[in-house]
Every structure is written in structure tokens, then in C-alpha cells.
Ester cyclase
Amino acid sequence: MSTTAGVSASELAVRSIRIMADGDRADFDALIHPDAVNREDDVEPPACRVGGPAGYYATALWLRTAFEGLAYEIHHVVANGNLVAINSTMSGRHVAPFVVYTPAGAVDTVFPPTGQTFAITQSHWFRLEDGKVVEHWANRDELGQAKQLGWVPPTPAYLFRMARAKSRVKRAM
């Protein structure tokens, strides 16, 4: 599959992951199709649930706020036509509340910062159209992340911090 400016489908998909950690809005406009859909946005903030570059950029800001030093190490990339699969590791340090939402957009769970680092495997799937990402799916080791960050098993003190953090987030909305 050809893409714009001589960039291969694999390169485009890899860059679309890397901009989650370091890209500015112009990067998202260049790589994400205006009609793009993120199939993983059902627990993300409402701002992330819009289509196109704006939603993807909002997801990046959501992750960067909670996880300092967010980075992606790419292990494998496989492309077949307009589909690209990537095996990667995401890492960072939990420095701010990580807020998870219900499908209806209400605050579900708030994980107060632990200061801990994590590194988890992820598989990302992309569909490309017109030389841009038009669809994204992912599988993540969320249990591994929760264990590394001390979210599970939760201590009574951390459960109290979670409840207090959730109350603060709800009041701030």
C-alpha cells in the first residue's frame, strides 16, 4: 500500500504510536485521518471520544498527564495491505491521577499517583486509508500495569486515597 510522502504503512503506524508520547497537535493532524475512530476509547475522558486527530490528541494528553516519561518501544511490525499490527512495550511513571470513565462518560475509577514505574506489553492494530490512520484497536496488559503500579491488590490506605481522589475529580467537573 502506498502512503503519502513515500512513508510506508508500517512507518506511519509506528509513528502514530510514538506521537502518543511526544507529538504535538500538528503531528496528529498529519497522521490521523479526519474520520479516524479509536476503538479503545470507551474508558477514556469524553474529549477523547471524538473522531479524528482531536480525539487521538486528547488521548495522548490524558496518558501524558498521568504517566511521566511515557515511551513506546517497538518490537515487531507486520503490515498486510492497509492493516498494520504492532507489538510494543509502553512505559512511564505514574505521577498524576489516572481517571477511568464509564461508557456513558461518567468518572468510574481514579487511581491516585503512586510514583511507581511500569512497562507493559501492548498489541496495536491499525487500518489505514488515504495515507493516514483511520481505525485503531489495542490489547494491553492492564493487569500487569495495575500490579506494577500498586493498584492491585489495593491496600486499605490506597482504597481510601482512590475514594478521595474520585471525589476530588467529580467536584472539579
In short: The beta strands are 32-38, 67-80, 83-94, 98-101, 107-111, 117-129, 132-140. The CA atoms of residues 3 and 131 lie 4 Å apart. The longest strand covers residues 67-80. The mean pLDDT is 95.
